[in-house]
Design goal:
By secondary structure, this protein is an alpha+beta fold. The protein contains eleven helices and twelve strands. Helix 2 packs across helix 4, helix 3 crosses helix 4 and helix 5 crosses helix 7 (195-213). The model is unreliable at 252-280 and 282-294 (pLDDT under 50).
Length: 327
């Protein structure tokens, strides 16, 4: 299988609630879906074969196929037990109940001497991944297969879905998601209850993966209701096509920033955004026109990493002051 294969899912499946148990489980699911050709009719008897070596080649990791096969088998077992919660039919019609729980994989088998696993999908999930005429999204497998976080994979799919809504004039290019809704679609209703943990374990790794590996740039902000953070804000933009030199410069800038940097605009900066414009807004007292690049970048890193400022992306209001606990 090639990395330029496409993954196609209905919007209803993208917005379904589920929490993959491992990175390998999510990779295995996406590689199997990517094997479905456009317009192909499949049933619960259609088999999809994935080899340990093929998965390692896609991800770009070395090692003996036996160790990869062990991970692959565990991921296949986990997929058999995995279920998702959907609120719509594949065509977008709402279900009578608030949500409906369906299993994803019907069966799995192992070919030990070839280090391969074989999967079949359940009849319930098939309409969400094949023969879709509208209300669906497709993306290249290469955009997600090397991600280090399952949350990055999920955020990328959601960002593809949210981008149209964010571009409506009244939304000013920003998609606002209630914190409870975000937890629901990510399958995190009972995990990372502290806001700092949610940002550290979920949002920051997800943003880092999306901005590094995909064709989108996603920046993060938040909005309060009363004294508590009620909404997460995502500014979603398509990355411009750049020359090889531009890509190298963007990578160099990204590597100079602290790991996990995600405050309003920083991830956009990592991918070659307008640094001087962003820095002037964040650091108005700096005479950036008279300062070398490395000094300006050091000042920006200190502002982001040390003070941990988060803003409302629509109003510019600082939501979390330096030293202020997050609620």
């Amino acid at each position: 299988m090639k990395k330029d294969e496409k993954v196609t899912k209905s919007n209803a499946l993208i917005e379904a609630a589920y929490h993959p148990t491992s990175l390998y489980q999510m990779r295995l699911l996406l590689v199997a879906i990517a094997q479905i050709r456009e317009g192909e009719k499949i049933t619960h008897r259609t088999e999809f074969t994935i080899s340990a070596q093929g998965m390692a080649d896609l991800v770009g990791i070395a090692g003996k196929s036996g160790s990869h096969f062990a991970y692959l088998k565990q991921a296949a077992d986990d997929l058999v037990d995995m279920s998702i919660r959907v609120t719509e039919y594949p065509d977008g019609r709402p279900r009578a109940r608030r949500w409906w729980k369906i299993n994803v994989v019907d069966s799995c088998g192992y070919i030990e001497d070839q280090a391969k696993v074989v999967l079949t999908f359940t009849p319930s999930i098939i309409p969400y991944i094949t023969e879709l005429e509208d209300r669906y999204k497709s993306y290249r497998l290469a955009h997600v297969i090397k991600m280090k976080s399952v949350y990055g994979m999920r955020l990328y799919e959601l960002a593809l879905r949210w981008k149209f809504e964010a571009e409506l004039p009244q939304n000013k290019g920003i998609k606002e998601v209630a914190v409870g809704e975000f937890r629901y679609v990510m399958g995190l209703e009972d995990q990372y209850r502290e806001m700092d943990d949610l940002k550290k374990r979920v949002i920051r790794p997800a943003l880092r993966d999306v901005n590094e590996h995909t064709d989108l740039m996603v920046s993060f902000g938040q909005r309060k209701s009363g004294r508590s953070i009620a909404y997460f804000q995502f500014k979603i933009e398509k990355k411009p096509r750049t020359s090889a030199e531009g890509s190298r410069r963007a990578t160099k800038r990204k590597n100079m920033l602290p790991s996990g940097t995600t405050t309003n605009g920083a991830d956009f900066l990592c991918e070659g955004g307008d640094f001087m414009d962003y820095a002037r807004r964040v650091l108005p007292r700096c005479k950036l026109g008279q300062r070398p690049w490395d000094e300006a970048l050091k000042a920006l890193r200190d502002e982001i990493e040390t003070k941990g400022i988060y803003r409302d992306m629509k109003t510019g209001e600082i939501i979390q002051q330096p030293g202020q606990p997050v609620t």
